[in-house]
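During the no-cost extension, the postdoctoral fellow (Dr. R.K.) reprocessed legacy sequence entries with the updated structure-token encoder. One reprocessed record is reproduced below for audit purposes.
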Amino acid sequence: MKLNKIDKSESIKLLNLFVLIICSIVGVGFISGAEIYQFYVRFGKYFYIGIFAFFILVFLLTRKIILNFYYNKNKYKMLKNNNNCVKNTFLVKNNIKSFLIFFDVLMIASAMISGLNNMTKQLFKNNYFIIMIACIIIVFFILCIGINGLSKVDYVLMLFIIFIGVIFILNLCDFISFDLQSSTNKKYINDDVSWGSFIFPIIFASLYVFMNIIQLEPILKEYKVTFTKKSINIFSLVLSGFLSIVLLLFSIFLNNNIKLTDFSMPFLTFFENISPTLKFIYIIGLFLALISSLLSCLIGVKRGILKFSKNNIVASGFSVILVLLLGMISFSTYVSVIYPIIGAINFVIFVFL
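Re-encoded structure tokens follow.
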């Protein structure tokens, strides 16, 4: 496989892609602290094993997705005028993969809508419907703009991720302290040394990565970037390193403040106990994270719908309506039933397709 040499004008595109992928993986569950506890911190001192597995998997899967993207694109060009069994097998596998990815991003986007509904009810109570409508309108207009609109949202979200990281560091260094009245009865899983102490953190980290990394496929198709073989390795390494450092920092903070996990949104509870101003900033960031994750998936949904309707506004509108209807399913159903199905589908995609 031959990849063109990268020029200096591509560096900005690479940075944009880096930010897009970071923010698509760092979803609202990550920012709220709920996913970090469920997939990492609840394994006690062995959560470091899960984070190391996260680092390895993000690196390998990102590299695989980018390499496969270029390989499949070049192979399709080679087979385009060749009517034989090899071409037919390749196209069948490609079509199955495209359908499964479409299903994945559709269901994840719908879960985001369901989560948005829960979050607005919790934060705004009687005014939640107005906030929901406003969020949907914002999402629709950004989706009409496309990947460039998402990129602008994600740069703001990156600043927010850095902001809460700084706040957590200040707390860990005792520059910021808070007093939380909570009598937690939570216990760590596998706090004693056993085979499960090492296996379970790896399994849950793998589930988390497989569930989230699939969003890279539609972003790559939408955002044209030139890679060399060397730049793919460097890009994947820097991406996995940055994400792992953020995950490590957030996990250490939550592990040191385990009482926060008594609440559905641990980090929100933390900011509520510091100051109203920081709470307000955090809530804005929380909505940015949710909108970013939602848009990352909606771009994939819209791309699938554009195969049937070439009108950008119609495809954007239909995508939003479709996920709104599916978003009526309860968020607990998504977490307990649909998320494991998505994880299994993504495993099939990466291993067999």
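The two ends are 18 Å apart (CA to CA). The chain has one domain: 10-352. The remaining legacy entries will be reprocessed before the final report is submitted.
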